[in-house]
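User: Hi! I'm working on a homework problem where we have to compare a predicted structure to a textbook description. Could you give me the structure for the chain below?
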Amino acid sequence: MSQPEPNVDEVVRSIAEETDTPTETVSKMYADTLADYRHQARVQDYVPLFAAKKVRNKLRDGSHREH
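Assistant: Happy to help. Predicted structure tokens:
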């Protein structure tokens, strides 16, 4: 049985609040990461969770900022 899709707006808002990042930035990063994971994954059940985790970690590490 597959997992229900999380509400994208809630995921983006949560990451934005946790990382003090504009929702527009988080939304784009999440969409890009999700698309990349979906393209590569054989099993799609947990792809949204993995994408959210990757975006959250990137923002916490500060690796999204251009220097």
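For your comparison, note the following. The mean pLDDT is 89. The chain has one domain: 8-61. Good luck with the assignment!
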